[in-house]
Design a protein that fits this description.
345 residues, alpha/beta, Rossmann fold, nine-stranded mixed sheet, 11 helices, 39% helix
């Protein structure tokens, strides 16, 4: 028993770098507009592309699926990256879906965006869409990308949105998102929400970045493998199976490695934004028909949060997948979700 508690506390300390102070009260940033298109109108599948914004930031993204397919923006989890969307590639051609997957500010090679909010990222989505000549599009977010997808439903003009979806998405704090959550996630959410002021963030950020730089690539990969293994102990059966699949593990590690290419500031910023009070209200979402997807055995973003969000978002629909968890839902249910969300194929 004691060793189990020690393991969990050790894991939480490893992740203390994700708890910033100064970002608890974020203020709106400059609305970006693309200065020029630095990638072709039909980028090569899966290759990292970029655009330069008017405020000097760089945004990176990947595209997957038919170049002329139905455009769908995929907003990755946290910490993760645009590589995450690759799991849906087998389902795209037959459904004529083109995925555009941005890296959020501070993730991968996307520039930092200090003091940003959830709704600030909606302008990044619009900037990429404009650069690619896309007028109307769908947006779907997984896990930590879910709140950003809902921010799009709130802030992007409805005439530009063809659909908004959330897969296993984080719920706002006031809806008690930690009800039914695994021990590791519950403690981490509460530490970020209530105890972030006790950390010297500059020191933590610098220390962890220096640690990452001092390790070899394989040492960094092994760190993330161990973290996934520690987390999976408290998850449902399907998620445990994913955490035992060597190919799946390496794909998750790839996503996490890219997330931290530019240091830990972006993931740190995301952690606080997800558990701080959001800068929009679910009841104020103007887009009608938000789709919510969740597995009943998800212990990272439990079904309770999805059910409460469905009640709060006018006109939304919730689809629950029996027995699926946080890691298994995209691999097991990706085709079903796309069929429901895009209504094609």
């Amino acid at each position: 028993m004691a060793s189990n508690i020690t393991r969990k506390l050790s894991t939480l300390l490893d992740f203390s770098f994700l708890i910033p102070i100064s970002l608890l009260r974020a203020s709106p940033g400059t609305i970006p507009n693309a200065l020029f298109q630095s990638s072709p109108s039909h980028p090569t599948e899966g290759i990292l592309e970029s655009i330069l914004l008017q405020n000097g930031r760089t945004l990176t993204y990947r595209t997957y699926g038919p170049p002329n397919g139905t455009p769908l923006f995929y907003l990755h989890g946290s910490p993760s990256s645009s590589l995450e969307a690759a799991v849906l590639v087998p389902h795209l051609s037959s459904r004529n879906i083109r995925i555009i997957a941005p890296n959020r500010p501070g993730f991968g090679q996307s520039s930092q965006h200090p003091n940003r909010t959830l709704t600030d990222h909606t302008q990044d989505v619009i900037a990429i869409a404009d650069s690619l000549g896309i007028q109307k599009f769908r947006v779907i977010g997984l896990s930590g990308g879910g709140p950003y997808s809902l921010a799009c439903a709130h802030s992007i003009p409805t005439e530009r949105l063809a659909g908004v979806g959330v897969i296993a998405g984080s719920a706002p704090w006031k809806l008690n998102p930690t009800k039914g959550m695994d021990w590791h996630g519950w403690m981490r959410f509460h530490l970020v929400r209530y105890l972030s002021w006790t950390f010297n963030i500059a020191y933590i950020r610098r220390s962890f970045d220096n640690k990452l730089k001092s390790w070899s690539v394989e040492e960094r990969r092994d760190f993330w493998r161990k973290d996934l293994g520690n987390t999976a102990i408290d998850l449902g059966e399907k998620d445990k199976l994913v955490a035992q699949d060597k190919e799946a593990i390496e794909e998750i590690v790839d996503c996490t490695m890219e997330a931290f290419e530019n240091g830990c500031e972006g993931p740190m910023q995301d952690s606080v934004l997800l558990v701080a009070d959001w800068d929009f209200q679910l009841g104020d979402i103007r887009f009608d028909g938000v789709r919510l997807y969740v597995g009943t055995e998800d212990r990272s973003t439990p079904v309770h949060g999805a059910r409460e969000m469905q009640k709060a978002i006018k006109g939304s629909k919730l689809l629950e997948f029996e027995g699926d968890g946080h890691y298994s839902i995209l691999g097991d249910r990706g085709a079903e979700i796309l069929d429901d969300f895009v209504k094609e194929g």
